[in-house]
Amino acid sequence: MGFHGGNDTAQAAEAYMGLTGADPVLYVYPQGARFADAWAGWDVDPAGADFPFVDAMLADLKSKHCIDPARVFAAGMSNGGFFVNAAMSSPRVTEGSGVGGRRRATVSLR
């Protein structure tokens, strides 16, 4: 699964992520919903709307395709990276990687 960045589109993510290959793999680029301020993205709150959306998407894909639940991978850019990092703490995603989407650690250099 390829999760686009904030205020971006699934179509753009497909173009810039380059998750393609000759192996028989199912590549999915979901589209994040628009928020009230018209900004499209992913709700990283596990109690938010996007985790149930991804669960339903995965259930639908599993009902139509032969998918090994032990091999569900995700990549995300920016806000999509935040979402992938949050999704990796659940059984939804086996492995994942976020680009520019990790929470900044608070570090004191004193």
Give the CA-CA distance, first to last residue.
41 Å
Helix content: 25-40%
Number of domains as seen in the coordinates: 1
Percentage of residues in DSSP E strands:
5-15%
Radius of gyration: 14 Å
**Can you list the strand order of the major beta sheet?**
1-2-3
Average predicted confidence as pLDDT: 84
User: What is the tally of helical segments?
Assistant: 3
The total of beta strands comes to 3
Largest sheet: 3 strands, parallel
Shape field: globular
Q: SSE order, as H and E?
A: EHHEHE
Low-confidence stretches: 104-110
Main structural class: alpha/beta
Q: How do you describe this structure in short?
A:
The protein is α/β, with parallel strands linked by helices and about 110 residues long.
What does this molecule look like?
By secondary structure, this protein is an alpha/beta fold. The protein has one domain. 29% of the residues lie in helices and 11% in strands.
Please render the helix and strand layout as text:
Blueprint (H helix, E strand, L loop, with lengths): L1 E2 L6 H8 L32 H15 L8 E5 L1 H9 L7 E5 L11
